[in-house]
Amino acid sequence: MNPLIRALIIFLLSISALRAQSDNFVFSPINVLQGLSDNQIRYILQLPDGRMVFKTSGNINIYDGVHFKYIHQTLPNLYPLNGYDGFYRIYQGKDSLLWIKDTHKLMCVDLRTEKYLSGLDSYFKKKGFKKGIDDLFMDSGQHLWFLYSGKLYKENSSTIIDLSANKNRLQDLMSRNNNLYLFYDNGEVICYDLKTKRKLYTIAAYPSEQRAFFKNTSLAVKGNNGFYQLRNGNKGGFFFFDTQKRIWKKILETNYTLNTLVVNSNDTAYISCTNGIWIINCRNGEKRYMPTLKKVDGSILNTEISTLFYDKQGGLWLGTLNQGLLYYHPSRYKFKYIGRSYFQKNASNDIIVQSFAQDQKGNVYIKSQSDIYQYHSSSKMDKVLTVVSLSLVPKEILEKLNQNNQTVSITDIRGWKWTGTQDGLKVFDPKKQKERFFYTKDGLSNNFIHALLEDHSNNIWVTTSYGITKLQIDPISNQIHFTNFYSDSGTLEGEYSDGAAFEAKDGTLYFGGINGFNILNKSGINSKKIPFSPLFTNLFLRGERVESGKLYDSHVIMNKTAPYTKEIKLSHNQNFLTFEYSALNYQNPSQTYYRYELEGVDNTWRETSIGGQNENPDSDGILKTSYTNLSPGKYKFKVMASNNNLQWNGLVSELNITINAPWWKTPIAYILFTSLFIAIIISGLYGYIYNTRKKMERNHREDILLVRIRNLIEQCDFLQSEKETYLIEKNENTIGSANKINENNADNEFLARALEQVEKNLEVSDYSVEQLSRDLCMDRTGLYRKLIALLDKSPSLFIRSIRLQRAAVLILEGKLNIAEITEKVGFSSSSYFSKCFQEMYGCRPSEYAEKTGNST
């Protein structure tokens, strides 16, 4: 074969292989639209607690998977660092400080307060550096090293290494096994013994004639058997230094700058550069260059990747020069998204995918409102979709495409009839003659149903106006489990089409919608275990977010930011709390499930998915739960998180809460009250005895005859007072009756309005005393006094009594089960409902109908 033709074939094969590999990477953008401060990313770091740190040109962004917190920079926070000429570098020490290096300047952020430290000059002077340090480094053990007047000083240590004899510029350092490795601008690494402070050896990465190629910047990263290093100058170079063999290896050389390097535990290196990224398997030498990146909608992104990071969950973060962040995880996009860019370029209107069909050979056809396409799953094809002329479409395929079911109704293998409506999903069981409706509060991704499909595993798939829901029915208990998939799983961001759901012969699922369709390979729905450790991100007091160091009712609640807070102490009236936690599930935030418990209030764990907390599901992966009117005492709030596998074997995050009693309920106050009460009793007894003795003495001196006269006078007075009392009471009864009628009318009207408001909000589980008082245009104290005076019941007991009375009626009707009645009358859990019901009626809800002589 001609050598030129052979070279051309090899080139084309390499291009095809590169395209196939590149197709595996689908990135989702995160930019200012999601809350990023600005789109110019300079550096990425992950904190030990799992949060991500993004340094942009504007400021520092701390990301918990949903929310961004900004740490703003001011000029007084800058410290001159004349010895550093490189790019952005961020070091995190063991003391929660972030050290930020940029060309000739240094900054420091305290994560416990989320503020820049001012007065770094004083900080370094206290450490003995009067003239100012030249450079700052951090070794592999997170120990800071300061370069000062030709010497290296280890923080909080007596270790000092004299470098004055070396005239080259120190660019990086790393540590390993009590050895310190110094990387210089001439390409040399010098190893020192940290115990003896002696130099062990010096080895150069390249010959002296190549120093100009790589002398400008250096970035060293620890690997399994040594250190990886990026170097830049006239060229870019990627090197590896084997600390055991003491040899350098050049892995990659480019004619352009290599920006940032990360290496995962499998020795796979990711390198950002001017255009795209390099992915290099350092064990077998396989290299992959991706000059362009694909977003989830199929569009191509061609921009400079300024930095990158590989997180603890196996996700790859890319920071761009001016387009924000890009995130990729191998299991993030379970659904393949064939978007508008794959269809005809001249399509100006919306592309509505209406139906699917498959021929005997396995070819899949897609019908839109204007064209019929054939889908090519093979990566060898240049086009994923090709337009097929009507004359070339097989007749049986054309019939299937035109027979698309628009009724959104199916009957499953159990005989259940499922019907999708514009407001919920209806299912009818003909055996039990029972009908149920499901809404977002029950687990649906959205209430507007577009298509239904039963797959070969007898799962029900539901496409909606916002995401896809999978329903798994337990074959024994018939219990239904909901799993929702949103855009972070690759689903369409717009609506799906009516009836456009299809399962191919190999089990692949297709879902059509506006401007695209989804493909799901059934092997892609398995959820992998992620080591979740929920993080305390925010505390809200009476709806107001609590800030660290700020006074609330004259005292500070949190001295540190929420992630560093393990205990909070509150006064007796600071008992309306909302806790916010993040599982930091960057991979699939909408597939986050939580269980939580407030010891002292909850009798057991409460479980919830982020899409099941309210009528309008929020797929951001954040847990936000409230507790109101907490009594003084000690509590412990515990949180766990899981993904779709619902395996609660991860870490438990705990927050200790103390609500102090008011001063009049403290032990000292009780002692004082008791002492005062005893003193009053003693004083009263003494006074009583004294007065009684005096009275007995006076009575003794009276003549016995006066007793008879006094008795006679008292008898006359008694008869006269009886007469007067009779006349007064007669008049008062006449007047009092009229007043009492007026008072009774006003009281009855008030109670009727209160009853109306409670019954109107009967299904609202968090309908509180505060809301009732607002609805009645009263303050909370006035409402309390009014109900105590009329009913001898507090407002909370008033609300609960109405709920329980309504529950008793529903039980006697026998149309709903206990769980449904619990939800109907606004109780958050069946166990709590049963407890309250038994307190009021003296029996469990399940026994009530039988006890009252009725049957369900």
TrEMBL record:
Residues 752-851 form the HTH araC/xylS-type domain. The keyword Transmembrane helix applies. Residues 1-22 form the signal peptide. This is Transcriptional regulator. It comes from Flavobacterium cheongpyeongense. GO terms for molecular function: DNA-binding transcription factor activity; phosphorelay sensor kinase activity; sequence-specific DNA binding. The lineage of its organism: Bacteria, Pseudomonadati, Bacteroidota, Flavobacteriia, Flavobacteriales. The chain crosses the membrane at residues 668-689. Residues 709-761 form a coiled coil. The keyword Transit peptide does not apply. Keywords: Coiled coil, DNA-binding, Membrane, Phosphoprotein, Signal, Transcription, Transcription regulation, Transmembrane, Transmembrane helix.
